[in-house]
Specification:
alpha/beta, TIM Barrel, five-stranded parallel beta sheet, 12 helices
C-alpha cells in the first residue's frame, strides 16, 4: 500500500511539474525503419515510433511547429506541449512514418534535403556504410589524398567480412566508444574526414572509395530519398508540413555567405516548386551552434522563413529565438526508456 501511495505521489508531482514547466519539447527524429545496421545512428523502428506516439497522444498535447511559432510570436508557449520533427527526407517518412502519425492524428514537420531527390546515390554516411560494413571482401590497404595530405589504412584480416562478422557487429554505431574491427575504425575516420567537406569534395572521395572497393554505388531501396511525387503525398492532408534542410546537407559555417544562400534558398525554392505552396520552416544540418553562424541566421530571416531548428538539446521557453529553436534527439528507445528520457509520467 505504501509503495502504491508513493508511486501515485510521484506521478502527481511529475504531472504538476510538467504543467508548470514553461517549456515545449521539440523532438528530433530522422528515419522510421527497421534496418539490420544503423551506424550513424538515425533509425527508430515503426513499432517503437508507434509506442512513442501513443505515449504522446495519451500524456501530452502535441502541436505543430507552426503552432509553436505562432505562440512564440505572441509571447508565450503552451506548457508541456510537444512538437514532432523528422530530418533529412528519407522515403520511409512517407511509408512508415505518415501512417502512424495519421493513426494517432498527430502533426509533424519533415525537413527535406533536396539534392538527392532525383539522384541515384545515398547520403555520404550511408554510402561509406554500404561499402565498408556489409559482408564481402575489400582490398587490404586504402590510401587517399585529401587537400595535399595522405591518409593510409590497413584492414588486415578485416578485409574479409563474413555474414557472421556482420551479424556479430551489426549493433555498432558512432555513439559507442569502441571500434570492433579495422573496418569500423575506418568508417569512423572517414566520417570525421568527410563531414566538414563541401559536397563536391565528398563526392570525389566517395567515387575513389567505390573504385577502390570495386563497386558501383546506387541508392538501396531501404536508404533512398523521397521523390518529388512522394513529397506531395507526404504533405497531402495537411497533417505533415514540409520544411527545408538545404540542398546537400553541408556544415553551413564552413561555407561562404553566397554558398550558404544557395544551399538554404535553393532547397526552399525546389520544395515550393514541388508543393506549389510556401515553405516557411528550416532545420540546420547537424545543427549545433558551431554548424551555423549569425550570418546563416540572417540569410534565413531574410529568406522568407518563419523559424529554424537547431539540435541544441533543451526545451523551448517563451524567450526562445524562433530562428534557433532547440530540439531533443530521439533514439530507437523502448516505451519505458522514451518516457523516462523525456521526463514523462506514465
Amino acid at each position: 500500500m505504501k509503495r502504491r501511495r508513493h508511486s501515485k505521489l510521484r506521478q502527481a508531482f511529475q504531472s504538476l511539474w510538467h504543467r508548470l514547466r514553461p517549456e515545449v519539447l521539440v523532438l528530433r527524429y530522422h528515419r522510421i525503419a527497421n534496418l539490420s545496421s544503423d551506424p550513424h545512428p538515425v533509425c527508430v523502428s515503426p513499432a517503437r515510433f508507434a509506442e512513442h506516439l501513443e505515449i504522446l497522444r495519451k500524456h501530452r498535447r502535441v502541436i505543430s511547429l507552426r503552432q509553436l511559432v505562432a505562440a512564440l510570436q505572441n509571447g508565450h508557449v503552451p506548457s508541456g506541449a510537444v512538437v514532432v520533427t523528422l530530418d533529412d527526407g528519407y522515403a520511409d517518412n512517407l511509408y512508415q512514418g505518415k501512417p502512424l502519425l495519421e493513426r494517432f492524428d498527430l502533426p509533424a514537420t519533415v525537413f527535406v534535403t533536396t539534392g538527392h531527390l532525383r539522384g541515384r546515390r545515398e547520403f555520404w554516411w550511408d554510402e561509406i556504410g554500404q561499402i565498408l560494413l556489409q559482408p564481402g571482401t575489400l582490398p587490404e590497404r586504402l590510401s587517399l589524398a585529401v587537400d595535399g595530405a595522405q591518409y593510409d589504412w590497413d584492414l588486415n584480416d578485416a578485409r574479409h567480412y563474413r555474414q557472421e562478422d556482420f551479424c556479430r557487429h551489426q549493433s555498432w554505431n558512432l555513439r559507442v566508444d569502441h571500434d570492433p574491427t579495422p573496418r569500423h575504425r575506418l568508417y569512423r575516420d572517414l566520417h570525421r574526414l568527410l563531414k566538414p567537406m563541401p559536397a563536391g569534395q565528398q563526392q570525389k572521395i566517395l567515387d575513389d572509395l567505390a573504385a577502390w572497393a570495386g563497386l558501383s554505388p546506387c541508392a538501396r531501396e531501404t536508404h533512398r530519398f523521397l521523390t518529388p511525387d512522394e513529397i506531395i503525398r507526404l504533405a497531402d492532408g495537411g497533417l505533415i508540413a514540409v520544411g527545408a534542410h538545404t540542398v546537400t546537407h553541408p556544415i553551413l559555417s564552413q561555407l561562404s555567405a553566397s554558398s550558404q544562400r544557395d544551399e538554404i534558398l535553393g532547397s526552399k525554392v525546389q520544395l515550393e516548386e514541388i508543393l506549389g505552396s510556401p515553405v516557411t520552416s528550416f532545420a540546420y544540418p547537424y545543427g549545433s551552434q558551431s554548424d551555423y553562424t549569425k550570418e546563416t541566421v540572417a540569410i534565413i530571416q531574410e529568406g522568407g522563413f518563419d523559424c529554424a531548428c537547431s539540435t541544441i538539446a533543451h526545451g523551448v521557453s517563451k524567450q526562445a529565438d524562433r530562428f534557433e529553436l532547440p530540439r531533443v534527439y530521439v533514439g530507437n528507445w523502448s516505451a519505458d526508456e522514451f518516457a523516462r528520457k523525456m521526463g514523462f509520467a506514465i
